[in-house]
Write a structure and sequence with these properties.
The protein is of the alpha/beta class and about 325 residues long. Helices cover about 35% and strands about 10% of the residues. The longest helix is centred in the last third of the chain and has 19 residues, at about 295-315. Bound molecules: nicotinamide-adenine-dinucleotide. Nicotinamide-adenine-dinucleotide (NAD) binds near residues 170, 253 and 292. Belongs to the D-isomer specific 2-hydroxyacid dehydrogenase family.
């Protein structure tokens, strides 16, 4: 099991004991240097956002491994064509806890709506004035969900429970979400939404979807929430839109050039320039790709991921095979 985080270990040990299956944990990511660690094992499990190098697929095949089981939702770091070429069944954990990400997005949106970044800045300077920071109330707002799948659907339910109007853009219309949202086209969503919250995967249709032209269509009072993948937003265009006040603020759990710098306390020179620019803005909230990080999510991602490793190794059908693989 690659990229094991300390808090995952108790859930891994519980699973291992219950199933009587040995699990070796390493903190390293799966890459050309660490793939050798998989030799001699029946299956592997991993989580990482950086693309797997082509040699990794070949080596796993040579070691007799039959699967690439990611204990995470996104699988854009896996080349499905290469996986197929080397007979590696790809699985993910499609819904370890949609609420974890949905609640984080809502929390950040409420902080933006209440202008808490500006208040924090003032309070840090012992400036107790509230003038100029009039806010609004969530039930008066229209929320636009871009990508209403597991996480977008959970997000719609949360905002709907708070009385907000929820509109959504997604090529798939789900009847079960009818009580919580209305579907609309992308341009109408941009025009009407006070909060635009992104919950699509990163793919060809969403890469840099949020760019200069799109920010121009959004309300100047609107907030952008990106809890999905950094590559969906063109960061330099976002910075410009914030600087020119085309939009009012943003909460970003992920940026296109995010590195491994959240794994240890990074030195200032290791932090990309765009993070520094955004971090200095009181109307921008940054978090270190931590929306998933709850107890429920950790337990589920470990158990669901390992169950599928075991299933494939035992020649059974995994629960979460990625369909187009
Ligand atoms: P999901 O597959 O259940 O839902 C994604 C939805 O997006 C689908 O309904 C799909 O039809 C829709 N979609 C795809 N392309 C679209 C487009 N161009 N325009 C509009 N809609 C589009 O996935 P999910 O479980 O809801 O997760 C969504 C994404 O969230 C993941 O792919 C992952 O990248 C990200 N994620 C982030 C974190 C985090 O910690 N920040 C954690 C988990 C997942």
């Amino acid at each position: 099991m690659y990229s094991v985080l300390e808090p995952e270990k108790k859930y891994i040990n519980q699973w291992s004991k219950a199933k009587n299956i040995e699990v070796k944990c390493v903190k390293e990511n799966l890459n050309s240097e660490t793939v050798i660690m998989a030799k001699g094992f029946d299956g592997i499990n991993f989580q990482q956002i950086h693309p797997l190098e082509p040699i990794v697929y070949q080596k796993l095949h040579e070691y007799g491994i039959k699967q690439l089981t990611a204990r995470m939702v996104g699988y854009d770091m896996i080349d499905l064509t290469l996986a197929k070429k080397y007979d590696l069944i790809v699985t993910n954990v499609p819904a370890y806890s949609p609420r974890a990400i949905a609640e984080m997005g809502l929390t950040q949106a409420m902080r933006l709506v209440r202008k808490l970044g500006y208040y924090d800045q003032r309070m840090d300077n012992l400036d107790f004035r509230w003038a100029g920071l009039e806010s609004t109330e969530i039930y008066n707002l229209t929320v636009g969900v871009v990508g209403a799948g597991h996480i977008g659907g959970a997000t719609a339910q949360l905002y709907s429970a708070l009385g907000a109007k929820v509109i959504a853009n997604d090529p798939i219309h789900r009847v079960e979400l009818a009580p919580y949202l209305e579907y609309t086209d992308f341009n109408t969503l941009l025009k009407q939404a006070d909060i635009v919250t992104i919950h699509t995967p990163l793919n060809d249709s969403t890469k840099n979807l949020f760019n200069k032209a799109v920010f121009k269509k959004m309300k100047s009072t609107s907030y952008l929430i990106n809890m999905a993948r950094g590559g969906i937003v063109e960061t330099s265009d976002l910075i410009e839109a914030l600087q020119t006040k085309e939009i009012a603020g943003a909460a970003l759990d992920t940026l296109a050039d995010e590195g491994q710098f959240f794994e240890k306390k990074a030195l200032p020179e290791e932090i990309p320039e765009d993070y520094k620019i955004l971090h200095a803005m009181p109307n921008v909230l940054l978090s270190p790709h931590s929306a998933f990080y709850t107890d429920t999510a950790m337990k589920n991602m470990v158990e669901m991921g390992l169950n599928d490793v075991a299933a494939i190794v035992e020649g059974k059908r995994p629960q979460f095979q990625v369909l187009d693989n």
